[in-house]
From TrEMBL:
<protein>
    <recommendedName>
        <fullName>NAD(+) kinase</fullName>
    </recommendedName>
</protein>
<keyword id="KW-0808">Transferase</keyword>
<dbReference type="Pfam" id="PF20143">
    <property type="entry name" value="NAD_kinase_C"/>
</dbReference>
<dbReference type="GO" id="GO:0003951">
    <property type="term" value="F:NAD+ kinase activity"/>
</dbReference>
<keyword id="KW-0547">Nucleotide-binding</keyword>
<dbReference type="GO" id="GO:0006741">
    <property type="term" value="P:NADP+ biosynthetic process"/>
</dbReference>
<keyword id="KW-0418">Kinase</keyword>
<keyword id="KW-0067">ATP-binding</keyword>
<dbReference type="Pfam" id="PF01513">
    <property type="entry name" value="NAD_kinase"/>
</dbReference>
<keyword id="KW-0521">NADP</keyword>
<dbReference type="GO" id="GO:0005524">
    <property type="term" value="F:ATP binding"/>
</dbReference>
<keyword id="KW-0520">NAD</keyword>
<dbReference type="InterPro" id="IPR002504">
    <property type="entry name" value="NADK"/>
</dbReference>
Length: 406
């Protein structure tokens, strides 16, 4: 089946030509990339996100592009995305949609909220998938032939991930999507902070109806694209571990009583040897998490960067540093280390790290798309949200109120 993608591309106020960009030649079980069959003016390329930069062939201001993702840019840099698999789009054309739900663990209230969401999704002609444990809990309180247990074969047909919880629940959901980019995530706030959870639970019925209707008519969601970092742990050139994080990698001494001596290389050039409890390598999304507690700066998501901060350093000579995403970071344990360390990825999985291993970190090609309620960026709203969630000035305000009541 050939699906022709054709869009008006907008970049910095310039509308690029409307051309049939690509044909998706993909069968039900074929995950092949987009194949592009015509040349595109260079000015249109600014509105696209190349996957293979090294294969560009510039000739007379025109370029043959073998493979890239097709994006439409509005005021938000990378907003509306047409990246769904052929299978998920075909479900949409039939009026059906496959939704995957994750909810906050060990929260009994969430079960009944998810029950209501599932019943609403069924009314909207959606199939609901859950992991086995959560499926068992929901199946006990609702009955439907549209409730399924998730398995790896069904992942390509998922069009939407719904999260009920906080940022930790989002990170938990992303464990399933390490080998490929996840579908857009619709997150409802039911956690402690929830920087990634855009929508309130009180509006869940209106939000679900609006977003699903938009997808069925436009074939896309309005999203904010968040970068991930890829970490590869190697021992004598043999890969032992790979993970794509949305927040951070933490290299720590764990329960060992001895501090770590960590060699940090930038593009194979030694930056420093950090001594202390460990280091954090963070994305902008993770800058409001553990990275912030370790003294790192808050970085707005539109600032594409990789940041490194020491954890309880023995020396104050190494401070948090912000780097561009084009750089590669290599982490090793120095010879003077008296114990092994540990690598924790997004708080979801931990592996041991010894002196014979090399940990390589770079920007991941597998982004995360968080569904938004509007296409343009409201920086004032971001500032107010940051102030509210972190409780800035709250203590001083409360103290003034208490004094005035005395």
């Amino acid at each position: 089946m050939n699906t022709v993608i054709s869009e008006n591309y907008e970049d910095e106020g310039e509308i690029c030509e409307k051309n049939p960009i690509a044909s998706r030649l993909q069968s039900h079980n074929d995950n092949s990339s987009l194949i592009f069959q015509k040349e595109i003016p260079l000015r249109s390329i600014k509105s696209c996100s190349p996957q293979q930069h090294d294969k560009f062939d510039f000739q007379n201001e025109r370029c043959k592009i073998p493979s890239y993702e097709c994006l439409r840019l509005d005021k938000r840099k990378t907003t509306s995305v047409f990246r769904q698999t052929q299978e998920s789009v075909s479900y949409s054309l039939k009026g059906e949609m496959n939704s995957l739900i994750y909810y906050k663990l060990f929260d009994d209230e969430c079960k009944y909220i998810v029950k209501e969401i599932a019943e609403n999704l069924m009314e909207l002609n959606c199939n609901i998938y859950l992991e086995q444990k959560q499926f068992d809990e929901i199946a006990e309180i609702t009955h439907s032939n549209r409730l399924y247990v998730l398995n790896q074969e069904q992942i390509p047909s998922i069009s939407l991930i719904i999260v009920v919880g906080g940022d930790g629940t989002v990170l938990y959901a992303l464990r399933q999507f390490q080998s490929h980019e996840p579908p857009p995530i619709l997150a409802f706030q039911k956690g402690t902070l929830g920087f990634m959870c855009v929508f309130e639970l009180k509006d869940k019925y209106q939000v679900l109806s609006k977003q699903i209707e938009h997808f069925r008519t436009a074939g896309q969601f309005i999203v904010e694209r968040k970068l991930r970092l890829k970490g590869c742990l190697k021992e004598r050139e043999e890969q032992k571990f790979e993970y794509h994080v949305l927040n951070e990698f933490v290299i720590t001494r764990g329960a060992n009583p001895h501090c770590l001596y960590i060699e940090i290389y930038i593009n194979n050039v030694l930056l420093t040897v950090a001594s202390g409890d460990g280091i954090i390598v963070s994305t902008p999304t993770g800058s409001t998490a553990y990275f912030l507690s370790a003294g790192g700066p808050i970085i707005q998501n539109e600032v594409s960067s990789i940041s490194i901060a020491p954890i309880c350093p023995l020396s104050l000579s190494f401070r948090p540093i912000v780097l561009p995403t084009c750089l590669n970071i290599t982490i090793k344990l120095a010879n003077q280390c008296r114990a092994n360390g540990f690598i924790c990825a997004d708080g979801q999985t931990t592996v041991e790290f010894n002196k014979d291993m090399v940990f390589e970190i770079s920007q991941s090609e597998k982004f995360v798309s968080i569904i938004q309620d509007k296409s343009d960026i409201d920086y004032n709203e971001w500032v107010l949200n940051l102030r509210k969630k972190l409780g800035w000035n709250k203590v001083f305000t409360d103290q003034r109120k208490q004094k005035s009541n005395l």
